[in-house]
Amino acid sequence: MALGPRLSDIPNIRRTLTFYKVSSIITGTFLLVLCLMMVFRYGLGGDIELNGPSAFLTLTPKELVQGINVSTIILIVHGWLYVFYVAADFILWRLTRFSFLRFLYIALGGVIPFLSFFLERQVPRLVEAKIATLESAAAAKAAGADSAKATA
């Protein structure tokens, strides 16, 4: 038996693909916000402080932050979103039986800026092509079985 998705997994694949697309967009957006935050932290020397003594929103050196450290919140939120992104990638990989290198490539989408937006378009095309191939093979097999019954 060839390695590939099973016909019975198609509903789960489509559900996981929807979850993957949503998590890809959200994780990619937070990755861009994270990159901006890194520019503020390492380029300008300050974390984003909310409701501090200086102003409502300001850049403050990390050790002097007295209000809410938005930079830390961005780091934590992106980390958890990336966990959901990789979980969606893993489930999709398991159901579609992609190669492990493809799994790693898709997982990089939450680490390399803009890659998740590219993959959000590319991965569904690959998955839908696999599903279409699987459904056409199943339809051809069913048609062959029907014609065999008719001749018998």
From TrEMBL:
Cellular component GO terms held in the UniProt record: plasma membrane
Keywords: Cell membrane, Membrane, Transmembrane, Transmembrane helix
Domain DUF3817 as annotated: residue spans: 17-123
Mode of membrane association: Multi-pass membrane protein
Chief localization: membrane
Cellular compartments annotated: Cell membrane
Transmembrane residue ranges: 20-44, 64-88, 100-119
PANTHER family named in the record: MEMBRANE PROTEIN (PTHR40077:SF2), MEMBRANE PROTEIN-RELATED (PTHR40077)
Protein name per UniProt: Integral membrane protein
